[in-house]
Amino acid sequence: MSYQPFWFDEALKEEEATGLLPKLPQNHHTDICIIGGGFTGLWTAIQIKQQQPTKKVTIIEQHLCGQGASGRNGGAMLTWSTKLPSLIKLVGLENALFLVKESEQAVHSIKHFTQKHAIDCDCRIDGCFYTASNLAQQNLLQPSMQSLTLHNANNWQVCDQQQLLQTGSMTNLSGYYSPHGGSIQPAKLVRGLKKVAKKLHVTIIEQCAYKTHSGQKPISISTTQGQLNAQSMIFAVNAWLPRLQKQFAKKVVLVSSDMAITPPIPALLKKAQLTHGAPIIDSRIFVNYYRTTSDQRLMLGKGGNYFSYANNVSTKFDKPSQYSDLLHNSFKHFFKTDDIPIERTWTGPSDRSVSGFPFFGQFDDGSPVFYGSGYSGNGIVQSYLGGKILASLVLGSDSQWRNCGLVNTPIASFPCEPFRSIGAYTIRNAIRRKERAEDNNQQPFKLDIMLAKLSGSAAKVDIK
To answer: How far apart are alpha carbons 176 and 156 in whole angstroms?
Structure first.
């Protein structure tokens, strides 16, 4: 892969050269084979080994660990708290409150894990902000906040003027702040997880792509490096799942999140009061989000841009963002200047489900093959929880995770192609026109308002 996203490039530059990568041994047998060496696969492997250290666990990864979606992530650590109303509809009140609480705790658990294992990944638990960046976004967050308050689960607070200034932009008219959030260098985290997994004696084979599998106990798995046998198998490939397993072809839609990062700009960040690691997310459907790094860079991302036809992981995901003008305009929207330098742009594939939440389960044929996917743009914290779910499934342990409402439930489908892509771009363009009008304090066209409502749960918060 010739072009690297900024995070992954930075992570590899700081790693010591370790020589040739391990190859898949001949006649390799393992208890559990995990397909995918990103956040989900590595957290799952670590959870399994922590619960049952004698289990033989093997991860195969088609590239290098973290070179997929995990290492291209925007690095914002967000919880499910702003999605409580839709989570209640999906999994019921008890499970929804459990998942919200666990997602908030996971932020701090990840920080503790990085400290315990000396993973240097710029993990800053400075909270997070959700804001209104135009008049039309004012009060959109109230349904989520009211639901949290109703169920005694609200850890958000209305921003006072001083807190609002800490978002770094006078464009933000109002906002909410929660201490349960933060930011992280995602590629350094995933590379750190790889080291921890290896210390726990997880076998990790990189540059080894899954091809097919057959049989049950043992499962015979064919890869580009040969065959291996496993008692159980887990697909933890996220955006690549529809390509590898056709039964998931309509369960997610692959959409880009496009990101840009500046060189170090300490003077601008100091002036803007952006001296913390809290991400700032606005309240539009396809959000703008930005955050700083410890070396005083500013990263900005925008979701909902490129939709991959038939869920092919297009080569566009391995190139600079084709939406650099859109990213530049977002910088200008918040910081009112054309002078913010951009060092690099990149694109990450997001596996968005119809519900906006991930799904987990076991294959319908009863084989010991499990899966997790559909993080819908919220992957860092949620993949930590996904590791708990998948470990509980494959080990038959911890019934609370196996019965959390995200496991073995019906998964809604998107339309087939070409209707999926036609519909996605029609709705996307209507949302863009609507939000462009709102940014200019103009009334959007009624048709655009109507079409925007068809986006369902695309927003990071449940809005009225």
So the answer is: 6
